[in-house]
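Sharing a chain and its predicted structure for anyone who wants a worked example. Both blocks are below, sequence first, C-alpha cells second.
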Amino acid sequence: MASIKFAKLVSAGLGTSLGIYAIRHKQTHRNIVLAERNIPEGLETESNALNNLQLLNVQVFGRHGARTPIHIIETIEHGTYLPAFMGDLPYTQIDYEVKDVSGDVQPISLMENSYRDNNRILKGGVYVGQLTKIGQDQMYMLGKTLRKKYVDELKLLSPEIKDNEVYIRSSNVERNIVSARCAMAGLFNTAYTPQTNGPITIYVSDATNEILYPNTYHCPTMRTLFGKWIKQAWNLPSTKRIRQQVQERSDYVEKDGKFLNLIDVRDDLIARKTHGIEIPNNLEELLPEIETCATLIATIQLCGPPEKRHLNLSVGPVLQVIQENIDQAEKSSYKLFFYASHDSMLLPLAVSLGVFDDKWIPFAGDLRIECYRDTIGDKYIRTLYCGKESPVTGQQSALIPLSTFKSVIGEFRLDRKTYDDLCETQKEDEERHKLELRTGYKIKITEEATTAAGM
C-alpha cells in the first residue's frame, strides 16, 4: 500500500481505544474568546479579534535543522555524507556566545561527545548528528518567517537585535546551538544589517537539568516507563509487519532478540532524502509505511499508551516554563522566547496541547504560543503548529482565554520539585551524572530506555 491510515495502524495494535491519537477531539459548542467577550457576530474571526488585542510575547519551540543521521544501520548500504555538506553558510553567521542558564560558562555536552566518537563517523567522513548547510538554511528561513510576522507585521520586536528583548535557549547539543544562531541571523537580517549591540547569548543547561528533550538520564522513572512503552509499540501487529519487511529487504537477521528499530531506519532514510542521497529502491517504496509506523512507535514511547497517557515527565517542566513566561509577560522585557529543541520534545509537547497531526515534525518545524492582552487586561493565547493555527484540546479556535489554556496544560504541567520527586532520582544516579560531568563520557544505561525518537 502507498500509505497506511494512522487509525488503522493503531487499532490493529493496542485496540480501538488507541485511535485517540488519530482523532482530533472537538468541542460540541463554540467556546471562542469572541463569543465570551460578546463581540458582534460579524467580528467572529481570529484575524479581526487579533486587531483588538495587544501581543505581549511569543514562545517558539523549534526543531533543529536538517542533520546527518544519528544511527548507522550496518545491513543497509550506507549513504555518503561529504565534508562539502558541512561548514557555516556566510549569511547565517552572527556574533554569539554560549552560557549556562545560570550565566556561568557552557557546561560539557555529554550528548555531543557521544556523537563525536571515532566509531560514529559516516561514510564520507563526517560525524553523526551534525547540522548540515541545508539545515542551517532551513533555520535561517524560519528566522525570516519570524521576522516577517513579529518585526515587520506585528512590531513586537525591534528590527535590530536587543538582548533584553529576545531570550534564546538551546539544548547543549551543537546542532541545536547552531540552529538557534541561524534562526537569529534570519530573524534580525544580520547578513544585511550590522550587529552593533555585541554578541547575543544562547543559554544551555547541563545534562542533569535539561528539559528540552525527555531527560531519561536524569529521570529513572521516565527511563523505566519509556523502556516499557516502546516494547509495547514494537509488538504491535502493524509495526511488526513493516519491521519484518524492512528486515527482509535489508538482509537483517534477528539475533538474541535484537531487531531493527524503525525509528532509526526512518532517521537514516529521511536524512538521505533531505540531502539528495540515494535511498535503496527496495526501501524507498516502503518509506511511507516506515514513516507512519515510526511515528506511532515514538508517540507511544514518549507519551505512553493513549488509554492512559503519561506526559507529565516528558513535558511537565516545559509546560511550567511556558506558563511562567505567560504569567510574567507584562513584567518581563523579553518579547520572544526561542527554544532550539528536538523532535523528541516537540512531539509530546504537541500531543499535550492536542495539536499533534500524527506526522513526524519536520526539520526546522516549530510550535508557537502567542500571549495577547485586551483593553481591560485579560489575556488570551493563540497556538500555531508548523505555521498553522492549531486549536488546543477541546477548542474550535486557536485563540482562547488564558484560563482555558491553563486548564489544558494543567493536566500535565509539573514544577521542578514535583518533577524531581516523580523521577525518584536515586543517589547512585546522581553520582553517575557527577562522574559523567567530570569525565565528559556518557555512561550507557539500556538501549530501549534511552532511544529518544531520533532527537
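Comments welcome. Residues 133-153 form the longest helix (21 residues).
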